[in-house]
Model the fold of this input.
Amino acid sequence: MKSIRHHFHSPALGLFIIRFVAGVIFLYEGIQKLNDMHGTIAFFASLGFGAFFAWLVAIIEILGGASLILGLWSKFFSFLLAITMIVAIIKVTGPVGIEMSFAPLLLLSVAIAVLFSGCGAYSICRFGHRNCNECADGTCGCAHGMKK
Done:
């Protein structure tokens, strides 16, 4: 009989849950920005950024959120999402106080974790790597075809 500890040991499932929840949050925030683009542009202007950056962040959050949910191009979008969270912490929540930075810090840590770990076994990306020796252990680090 397997122990309860054995049943709750699945790093791949844990990564998927973290990826999925963060992806939903990023996707939701990006859609919110697009739904009120005039307000988003005004807010970005108050921070010293132009309309281009308001659109760019909204698109990165939508595509990045979907990427995390599906597990496709996760490393690339995690890098972009990490940059947006660093800027958000420095320009938006940091000046108000550390308490306001907890959510962006958590999302930043998730983006960095996915950047280092890849999309994991529960991902669309993994299906394209069925015969890949690099992905044989089921982790799929999204470095398929990249030279070391």
Notes: Confidence is low (pLDDT under 50) at residues 144-148. The chain has one domain: 12-117. Residues 78 and 113 are 9 Å apart (CA to CA). Residues 11-35 form the longest helix (25 residues).
